[in-house]
Design a protein that fits this description.
about 35% helix, three-stranded antiparallel β-sheet, about 70 residues, 3 strands, 2 helices
Length: about 70
């Protein structure tokens, strides 16, 4: 499962569920920036087990950092 690599690493890439492509890109970038800057603990059900962790920004892309359990 590599969804998180694509969705976080390339928020400017769309998919079939984007009703408004430009709004969806903006929302993904805004949310990634917010989570990376705030360092908030995050849950995502489409992220690698356990789905808990943090978003980091590196080289203009976002990366998932899973919580170690």
């Amino acid at each position: 499962m590599f969804q998180h690599v694509i969705l976080l690493g390339h928020p400017e890439w769309g998919n079939q569920i984007d009703v408004d492509f430009h709004q969806a890109v903006k929302a993904r970038k805004d949310m990634g920036t917010h989570l990376a800057e705030s360092k908030k603990f995050t849950f995502g059900d489409h992220l690698p087990f356990p789905g808990l962790g943090f978003i980091e920004k590196r080289d203009d892309t976002f990366h998932w950092v899973a919580k170690e359990i």
